[in-house]
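Hey all, sorry for the wall of text incoming. These are the two entities for the joint prediction.
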Amino acid sequence: MKIHEYQAKEILGAAGIPIPAGEIATSATEAFEIAERINLPVMVKSQVHAGGRGKAGGIKYAENAEAAKVLASNIIGMEIKGLTVKKVLVTAAEDILSESYVGIILDRVSKRPIIMVSPAGGVDIEEVAAKTPHKIFKLAVDPEQGLKAYQARNLAYKLYRDIAQVRAAADIIMKLYQCFWDCDASLVEINPLITNTAGKVVAIDAKMNIDDNALYRQANIEAMRDLDAENSAEIEAREGDLSFVKLEGSIGCIVNGAGLAMATMDLVKRYGAEPANFLDIGGSSNPRKVVTAMKIILEDPNVRAILINIFGGITRCDDVARGIVEAFDELQPSVPVVVRLTGTNAKEAAKILAKVKLPFENTLDDVVKKAIELAQLDVAV
Amino acid sequence: MSIFLNKKSKVLVQGITGRDGSFHAQQMKAYGTNVVGGVTPGKGGSKVSNIPVFNTMEEAVAKTKANTSVIYVPPPFAVDAVYEAGDAGIKLIVCITEGVPANDMMKVYQYVKAHGARLIGPNCPGLISVDQAKVGIMPGTIVKKGNVGVVSRSGTLTYEAIWALTQAGMGQTTCIGIGGDQIIGTNFIDCLEAFEADRATKAIVMIGEIGGSDEEDAAKYIKKHVTKPVVSFISGQTAPPGVRMGHAGAIISSGSGTAEGKIEALNKAGVPVAGSPTEIPALLTDLIKQRKAKVAKKKVSASGKTSAKKTTKKKTVKKTAKKVTSVRKKTVSKAARGTKKTTRKASGKKVTNKRK
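and here's what came out:
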């Protein structure tokens, strides 16, 4: 799960990492009031889950509260990479002398958290990694032993020469590492970590991704979920315990298992069409999941045909078949549906499905081809 | 004859009284797996399908001498179950549970490794050594005994590939699902190494997906160390970047972990990648033919310009020779088994002596 900059800053601030004063505004008037309270020049920063906010015009400098009001009214409602800005962070502007990068990621290869620092901050770290890899310094931390103070100091020396700043940065790195564990993060990033004209080290932008698997024990973070940033289908899918990703094509897919769901999408493309979605009904055989899945897909106006591909292992084909019959009764799908059920209890499933008279295919490739064929027929009519 | 798991493996089921645990304990037993017990705290002394239930892993291992465990406990308790298995001396720990926090996995991974145990999963379907034993949730009905080793990050997609092989008459040695999470205990390279060393395995099918760099690392390993033919399939070619596709590990982050990159790396290592899982058997057959043709060519060129008849003769001679050796092997292995038994008895005596 992604959280916004202002939410990440709240967490880091509470952990004792220096961040500039700021508050969140949902209207120009609120932005004006916040800027007045701060009583300094401010930055007005759009809060959307997208990179490149600055380039898109979503981050602006305001000399005073009046200017902040005007900028906020412009930024709120603007679109950045397809996302509408609903909130802005109004935060004290800093005089920047230097910009560094500090981040911690979960590394799949070493199976350890890796701390990365770079004196070349303020830009996309992937760009730094591609162009000037020698400017990135990494440390894989033993998760059992934890981060030692000297290790944090060694990394801080890569950023600063002034000993006070080194100490400040080392302290920030230690606290950031603690946040990584405390919040079950898969990524925490301060970019840039700046030094200002007063010589202070301050985090002026932050990013945090949280491991979805750990949200059950992170109630505070779960509460930060921005439902505006998700489309209604994704919310509905999550509530129905389905794994769903909306795509742009015309073939709706209902599959069991993430790998098979991806493979099914790939075959849709291979045989000349585009998938409308990724959808994994998971391992359980609850017929209601099939109904929810079909409902979500039918809400997508791009969908011209739906294919259901089930390889029964744990999932029992007869349960899925019952779900399909229920879905037909309740939803009366307006587009053609083609089914392939194989594996556990496939014969029983075929009997149940005889009621709804659906086109039935035996192999993965055939069900995909049939769905595409029916979608094209549908368009022709 | 198989990797990691065989008919001698003694299996404990952690979470045996739960819905999944009890169902799959029965299924595993029905397949012929030597399920010696189960563990659920507070349910010790009861039985599930005639399998004894213990309160702790320590007790269960002491009573049953189990060396393998399979975990069906809910995500908040799964990591603790791995630690408990490791501390009890289990050498193969298979974690089926989906939804285990990745940061917990980083810690337990180091721990298990330090204990000299192997962890498979989490978020995996487990493994089957065909006609010997199955641990996990794979349907035993789709496999067939043969000489192909199958390793995959997925569940149902693996079944699809296995089913395609079985229908094409290409049986399997061991089929193993290593899991779809970011941090997993056993990766492709571990399995490739084991399949390469397994005499019964003659070819390998590797099924990957987007996210991470395990497939790329495996490609490098195959090029250097794997002599057996390997065929692959990679899912997620149509997946958008930056979005998790069901599996926690199936995500293209900042341009890395794409299907294209993985396919390219595999092709470079001489591994053909199928366009559909159903094409895997044909691709594997072709690759085996190619390899054989290469070997035959070498033989022909080595024996000069002699007629093809000679080579065929040589082949038949070799075949009979093989038969002889295989018979010999059988007798040898029987003898070996015998010695093992005696050593076990001897060690048993030692223990009783100590107690005395």
